[in-house]
Amino acid sequence: MLNATSPAVPAVHDGLHVPAELAASLSARQAWISPKFLYDPLGSKLFEAICELPEYYPTRTEAGIFDLHGVEIAQTVGTGATLIDLGAGNCAKAASLFPLLQPRQYVPIDISAEFLHDAVERLHQRFRHIDMRPLGMDFSSRLDLPDSVRAERRLFFYPGSSIGNFTPDEARDFLQRVHAQCGRDGGLLIGIDLAKDHAVLDAAYDDALGVTAAFNLNVLRHVNRLLDADFDIRQWRHRGFYNPAQGRVEMHLEAQTVQHVTWRGGSRRFAAGEWIHTENSYKYRQSDAVGLLGQAGFAATRVWTDPKQWFAVVYARA
Ligand code: AVJ
C-alpha cells in the first residue's frame, strides 16, 4: 500500500542549507550550479522529453538491454526484494521491471518531490499489491533511509547513468554509502554510460530541437525561485559537448552579454562569454566501471551491454 501514516513526500528545498550552498557556488571564481537543481517540476518534464529525442541514446539503449536480458537479470538479482530506486523521476524504468523483479516493497527516491509524488500516485493504481514508500530527498550527499524501508533483500536501482553526474572519486564514495545500506543479502543494479564516438555524445547533449538547451536554461528559473534571483534567461545560451581530456560531457550556460545578477544576500557580474558550469556526465570504460564498484566494496559484478557496447547494466552483489 501507499505509505499513509508518515507525511507523503517531504519538501526538499526548505532546508536552510540550499540557498547558502547555491549562493556559494554562484559566487565561486568559476561559477557553477549543482545539476540536482535541474530537477524542478518543469525540469523533470523536460528530462522526460530528452529521453524521447532521437539523439539521446542512453534511455533507449538501456531499455533495450533490459528487453533483451531482463529474464537473466531477474534470475541474477532475484525476486521479492525491497527495490530502492535512486533518482526515480517518473518511476517508468522501475515499473517496466516490476513484472520481472516482483518487488515486495518499492522505495522511489527523487529530489523532484512533487513530480515523484504525482508519478507514484498513478503507479500505485496499477500495482496495488506493492508497498510504495516515496521519499522526496537529495540522496547525493547523505543516504538516510527511514525505518519504514525494509532491511531485508535491498536491491538498489540506479539506472540511466546518473552516476555520471559525480566525479569518479565522488562516485566511489557514493557507491560506498550505497554498499553500506545494502546489507549482506542486497545489491545494486546500475546503468552506466560507456565511452563512445564523440560526435554521438555531442549530439546527445546538444540536440537539434533544443530540448536539452531548455532543460539546462530552466535551471536559472529554478535558481530565480530558490534564491529570489533575477537571471534573465534570454541572455544565456546552452553549451553541451564532450570534453575528451576529462572523459565527460559538460553542460554550461554562457552569458551572451554582460550580466548583473542579484539574489537574496548576494550579487555578481558575469562578463559577456562567461560560463556557469551546470553538469558533468562522465562516460566510463566497462573495466573502469567494474573497478569502481569493486573499490566501493561490492563483492562481485555481472555486466550486460547492447550490441554497440554503448551502455552497460551492471549487477553488483554486496
Ligand atoms: C539524468 C544525469 C543521466 O547525464 O545524461 C541529459 C542528464 N543532461 N541531458 C545525463 C542529462 C543532459 C542525464 N542524467
Automatic annotation (TrEMBL):
GO biological process, one term: methylation
InterPro entries: EgtD, EgtD_Methyltrsf_superfamily, MeTrfase_dom, MeTrfase_EgtD-like, SAM-dependent_MTases_sf
Protein name: L-histidine N(Alpha)-methyltransferase
Domain (Histidine-specific methyltransferase SAM-dependent): residue spans on this chain: 20-317
Keyword terms, alphabetized: Methyltransferase, Transferase
Enzyme class: transferase
Single GO MF descriptor: L-histidine N(alpha)-methyltransferase activity
EC assignment: 2.1.1.44
Protein's organism: Telluria antibiotica
Superkingdom assignment: Bacteria
